[in-house]
Every structure is written in C-alpha cells, then in structure tokens.
Amino acid sequence: MRLITIFAAASLSAVVLGGLVCALSDIPSAIWLRNLAAWLVGALAAVGLAVRARPGWLPVLLVAAPAALAATFLGDGLHGVHRWIETGPLRLNAAMLVLPTLVVALSCAHGLWRWGAALASLVLLVLQPDASQATALAAAALVALRGAGPALARVVVVAASVGLAAVAWLRPDPLAPVPEVEGILGLATQASPFLALASLASLIATAMAPGLATRRAAPDLRLAAAALTACLGVCTLAPFLGAFPVPFMGVGPSPILGTWLGMGLLAGLIRDRASSATAAHRDRA
Questions:
Q1: What own/partner pairs with CB < 8 Å and gap ≥ 24 does 67-71 have?
Q2: Distance from chain centroid for Cα 27
Q3: Cβ(82)–Cβ(72) under 8 Å?
Q4: In Å, what is the CA distance from 224 to each residue of 162, 205, 265, 267?
C-alpha cells in the first residue's frame, strides 16, 4: 500500500489546491467539488484493485482500452471531436479514464500482440483527435518497450508511436479552452504567485509518485511505474503547449479516476508478486 499512500498524499494536494483556485475565482462549488468526489471514489476503487488485481486481468485490460476509445465514436461528438463517453449525467474522457491501466498492462503483459492494442489506441486518439493523450501514450509505450521483444518489432513500434503522436498534433482541435479546466494554472497565477508555485509542485509530485514509490519493486514493475510516470508527466506538461486539461487541478473527474485505477492495478500486481514470492519461499523451506 506504499504506492497508494504516496500517491494519495500528492494527488489530494493537487485536487484541494484546484478547488481553492476555483473558489477564489468564483467558480461554483457544485462544479469543483466533483473533483473531490472523484478522488474519494477513485481511492476506494484503487484500494479494491490493490487487493484483488491479478496478472490474469492484463489481457482483458489491453482489449478494454481501445474498445473504450472506440466507443467515443458512437455519439455525435462535440464540434467533430470525439473524446467522451456519456453515462447518465456524467461525461467522461475515455482516454484519461483508460490510459493509466493500459500503460501498466502494456508494461507487465507478455507477447507482441499487446503492442497491437497500444497502436490501435493511438490511431483512435489521432482520430478523436487528442494530441495530449496520444503523446502521453506514445511516451509511455516507448518506456514500456525498453528491452521487450525482437529489435525489428521495437523499431516498428517506436516509429509508429512517434509518427502517430506527431500526426495527432497536426489535427485541428476546434474546442475553446475552459478557464477552470484548461486554464486553472492561469487562474492560480492570478490569485497568487505562491498558489501557482504550490500548484506546480503538487502536479509534479503527483506525476512522479509512481516512480518514487516503487523503487524496491521487481524490474518489470518498476518499468510499469516509470511508464506511468511518463504518461502522467506528459499530461502535466501538455497544458503548457496547448489548450489541454490540467489533470487533478482542472475540473474533470476522468484523469483522477483513471490515474487511481492505474495506481490500484500496479499496487495489486506488486502485492500479488510479493505474495507469490513469500509462498515460494515457504514451499522451499
């Protein structure tokens, strides 16, 4: 549970600071309190995954991620942009919801077919279009690819990932930024330079949490944590390059829920590995 604890502290600080910025900027509390509710729901889900998650789940998650991204095209979209799945009153960003678990599954699963799931997801992100999430997935895939599979396969995956991420940046994005979503750091700067600095520190700590909390884990699990950090790092940097949502601070439950699910899956795999090692040691004794 070390991973869950460290991530909880870092991410909660970002969520609370985002709420504070919204409150100081006269954003109605009914809007920004959704982030805190999402954090609580995500934390509970992550604890459940930390107890229940098993390696046998990874193939299912690899298929579920592109399926969820494809489901965004079932609706009319918003000005030609297809990024969301609507469930009753909730509109969830599919990529932000499934990419963290996809990244962990890519790093920990075996077989070349898993890269088909990654590339299919990248194609769908280009079509949505969503340059920030396409770049986040490409960066995470490059980290997860390290030392995996034949050299030719790695070259193909690298070239395809970089190429698709580049194409995503060339696609037009007609949606205008929303101050409390994409512009939350600007609102923080207007409120107080110290609040802006604290916000940046909390976002950096949140992105770095997986790598910092798994230094004693097995090599493949450390690789999964590094890939997840790469994914979160790109999502954190993207708002400085364009009109992209600021995770955790900006209003929107999807990145909060999605990252918690990825953390819970990784924590569950770490726990399962430790339990298996303990059982094997007892058998030898």
A1: 68/94, 68/97, 68/98, 69/94, 69/95, 69/98, 69/121, 69/124, 69/125, 69/128, 70/124
A2: 25
A3: yes
A4: 19, 18, 10, 11
> Which residues, 6+ apart, have CB-to-CB distance to 59 below 8 Å?
109
* Closest among 98, 63, 57, 115 to 272, alpha carbons compared: 57
The pair of three-digit structure tokens given for residue 284, joined into one six-digit string: 């030898």
Per domain, the residue ranges of the chain are: 2-284
Amino acid residing at 244: F
Distance of alpha carbon 174 from alpha carbon 78, whole angstroms? 9
Local mean pLDDT, 10-residue blocks, the chain (285 residues): 90 97 95 96 96 93 97 88 86 96 93 91 97 97 80 87 96 91 96 95 95 81 94 96 95 97 96 71 55
Q: Which two tokens stand for residue 172?
A: 């037009």
Q: Residue 250: which of 206, 207, 187 has the closest Cα?
A: 187
